[in-house]
Amino acid sequence: MPLYYIIDDVFPNPEKADKNGILAIGGNFSPELILKAYKKGIFHWFNESELPVWYSPNPRMVLYPKDIKISKSMKQLINQNTFICTIDQAFNEVINQCRNTRIDEGTWISDDIIDIYNILHLQGFAHSIEVWQNNNLVGGLYGVALGKCFMGESMFNTVSNASKMAMIYLSQYLEKFQFKMIDCQVANPHLLNLGAVNITRKQFLKDLAENIDEPTNAFNKNDCT
Fold first, then answer.
1. Which of 158, 201, 203, 216 is 20 to 30 Å from 14 at the Cα level?
2. pLDDT tens, 214-223?
3. How many other CB atoms are there within 10 angstroms of residue 93's CB atom?
4. Contact 87, 195 (CB under 8 A)
């Protein structure tokens, strides 16, 4: 299949991605282009020295908030108040920790990515979940909320189970606001254990179209602590 080059910030049909999920390259990498991509079911994933690469994989991994799986051991940790979770209290720290935990193996979270997502955070699109233990930030995740969909980007933990706690907290929070799904992009065992599933690209794009223009309502200032 052909590889498309982004001109004038126009994306091709996401169904035209190749067998590896790669749809296009290039474009004026910016907050506006990232939001446009999310709304079409497309996400970026590339190293700092490369041109932007845009993906629309088939299958697509998603987690439906109502289907989050909480193991017996995690329920015990929750009941013991081992962790304290907050929303949007340390966005920049979370995204930097996500980068730092992957720096040895290579990371797509460049300085430009951090700057752009901080702008999206200030604009009210990007959000973080923080997990604290003894007043120390030990886990978290970040992503973008659009309509009733949350586009997950990355997570980290410095102590066991902290990233699981972040995803559980996010799922329970989003369920209260009738969010349809958390886009997890591609499969990994950690997310599968939490209840994420693979769906076809066609189904993902259908669910996205039905929910992307709904009112978000979540992530209000009163919810942030």
1. 216
2. 999 999 866 6
3. 13
4. no
31: cis peptide before it, omega within 30°? no
Q: Does this model's pTM top 0.70?
A: yes
Q: Given the DSSP bridges, would you call strands 126-133 and 4-5 parallel, antiparallel or unpaired? A: unpaired
For residues 95 and 109, the answer to whether their CB atoms sit within 8 Å is yes
> In angstroms, rounded to a whole number, what is the distance separating the alpha carbons of residues 26 and 7?
8
Q: Which of 42-69 are b and which e, b meaning 16 or more Cβ less than 10 Å from the residue's Cβ?
A: bbbbbeeeeebbbbbbbbbbbbbbeebe
Cβ-proximal residues to 166 (8 Å cutoff; 6+ apart), any chain? 85, 129, 130, 131, 139, 140, 141, 155, 157
> Strands, DSSP E only, in the chain?
4-5, 22-25, 43-44, 53-55, 60-63, 84-87, 126-133, 136-146, 149-157, 181-185, 197-199
Using the predicted structure, report yes or no on whether residue 106 has a pLDDT greater than 70: no
Cα gap 172→28, rounded to integer Å:
35
Cross-strand pairs, 24: 4, 54
Residue 105 has pLDDT above 90, yes or no: no
203 is written with which tokens?
Answer: 């189904």
Instruction: List Cα–Cα distances, 55 to 3, 103, 164, in angstroms.
Output: 11, 22, 25
pLDDT tens, 20-63? Answer: 999 999 999 999 999 999 999 999 998 776 789 999 999 999 99
Label residue 113 left, alpha or beta by phi (over 0 means left) and psi (-120 to 50 means alpha).
alpha
